Amino acid sequence: NGVASQCIVCQRAKIVAQYFVDQTTDHIVDLEDVDQRRVFAQIANELSAMNELEQASTWLAKAANGIDSDQTAEPLARSIAITGNNLACQYEELETRSEAQVERMLEAATLALENWKVAGGWMQEERAEYRLAMSLLKAGNPLQAKVHADRCEAICRQNGEDAFELFYANDLLMLVHYHLSQQNKLKLAEGDQQYCENSPLV
Question: In angstroms, rounded to a whole number, what is the distance separating the alpha carbons of residues 133 and 152?
């Protein structure tokens, strides 16, 4: 079994390498569905690192489409979760995003969260909640971001209140509340807005 597993790992690596040489994945048909999907996720991750975000999103979708995250094998879930997280971060770092890019950013962050629930522990799930909240803030939706920021903090408190993780969870909540206050400020009459102090947070 160990030798067979090593062979499959080598096959996956060769197919990924082949894609970056000649953009083909001819030998992928020799792999089982789960291993094909892991190849797709790996290609997506490499493309994300190269800042080829649209292509990365396409390959990530191929890895995840048609599978139920509750029934996903842990190695595949981990591959999709890592790639989704990295891709969401790359989209968040863009200075501006089109509507399509916002949609892909949220899809990536959502996939990361769904799959870390399968493949990770409480810390991976908590950090995935953090990532999705940040993506929602970048998408201009602080109200929905608050849902995930609250979950992020709740997971920390349920698991021993790790000081490092809790610091980031609280920092996230502060950022979410700032964005909510700025949204509410815009609803005020222009004359009343002067009474709302600006914050250096962004």
Answer: 9
For the stretch 91-127, what's the b/e string if a residue is b when 16 or more beta carbons lie within 10 angstroms of its beta carbon?
bbeeeebeeebbebbbbbbbbbbbbbbbbbeeebbbb
Average pLDDT over residues 3-14: 79
End-to-end CA distance of the chain: 52
- Radius of gyration from C-alpha coordinates of the chain: 20
Q: Where are the alpha helices (DSSP H) in the chain?
A: 2-22, 33-49, 53-64, 74-92, 99-119, 122-138, 142-158, 163-186
Q: How far is CA 168 from the centre of its chain?
A: 17
The CA distance from 37 to 25, in Å, is: 12
Q: Which tens digit of pLDDT belongs to each residue from 164-201?
A: 999 999 999 999 999 999 888 877 666 555 655 554 44
d(CA 99, CA 133): 18
Nearest-angstrom CA–CA distance, 81 and 114: 8
* DSSP one-letter code for 194: G
How many other CB atoms sit within 10 Å of the CB of residue 35?
18
pTM: 0.86
